[in-house]
Amino acid sequence: MEAGYMSNRSERINLTHHCIENNQVVWLLLCGDSTRMKFKYLAMLAAALLVGPLQAFAQTPNIVGTWVLIAADKLLPDGTRTSDYGENPHGLAIFTADGHYAVEIYRADRPKLSSNDRSKASQEDYKGVALGMSVHFGTYTFDPSKHTITFHIDRASWPDWDETVQVRIYELKGDELSWKVAPRPDGSVPITVLRRVQ
Questions:
Q1: What residues form DSSP beta bridges with 106?
Q2: Which residues pair with 94 in a beta bridge?
Q3: Which one, 59, 72, 94, 113, has least CB within 10 Å?
Q4: Quick check: 181 and 189 in contact, CB under 8 A?
Q5: Share of the chain above pLDDT 90, in %
Q6: DSSP designation for 20
Q7: Domains contained in the chain, CATH given
């Protein structure tokens, strides 16, 4: 292609589009007919290379950050939704940019142990501790196209979850994130609801 003088504005625009589509932007910058036109070509290139990816990034769901627990419920087989960890449960979830996470859920009304020495606590004490919390940490994979969070669990308060992989179907509505856990033996489905910390 020879560099010639383009007196018609529409001819310049058409040439610009043609060169961008055919990866000939360097030719435009080197052979543009004026410094002013070169700046225009450079601006168009910046828009093509930067604006599109930035818009796509802004629209991509992201769960990185800290989330506070606002509900820890369970869905019963008859469709009833009720609290799973008592009234006003406490907890949070943290998702790091490099793929690590931690999730903690606690009952607000956990009973104190009957002994200051936890090695001498009663069976009821231990039962209360085990049923009064749900904690796990490890690494995670986030897939917005499938609406899934995959937890690669390192350790958990429930030892049967140690070194397992569990997938959660999530919903993300603004700053509210929720997911459902696989049904328990009694058929109930735990539901975790969190709000992003601003």
A1: 90, 133
A2: 66, 102
A3: 59
A4: yes
A5: 59
A6: H
A7: 9-59 (no CATH), 65-196 (2.40.128.280)
Torsion of CA 6, 11, 17, 18, to 10 degrees: -80
Cα 102 from chain centroid (whole Å): 13
pTM for this prediction: 0.68
- Is-contact 101 139, C-beta < 8 A? yes
Query: Distance of CA 174 to CAs 64, 67, 181, 196, Å?
Result: 14, 12, 21, 9
Burial of 4 (0-12, 13-18, 19+ CB in 10 A): exposed
Q: Which of 138, 134, 187, 193 is nearest to 165 (CA)?
A: 138
Query: What does the block give as tokens for 160?
Result: 């049967």
88-131 pLDDT, tens per residue?
999 999 999 999 999 999 999 988 888 888 888 899 998 989 99
10 sits in which H/E element: helix 9-21
pLDDT of residue 34: 55
Answer left, alpha or beta for residue 50, where phi above 0 means left and psi between -120 and 50 means alpha: alpha
The amino acid present at 68, given as its one-letter code, is V
Q: Report whether 124 contacts 103 (CB < 8 A).
A: no
Nearest to 108 by CA among 157, 159, 71: 71
Distance, CA of 72 to CA of 186 (rounded, Å) = 17
Tokens in use for 162?
Answer: 């140690």
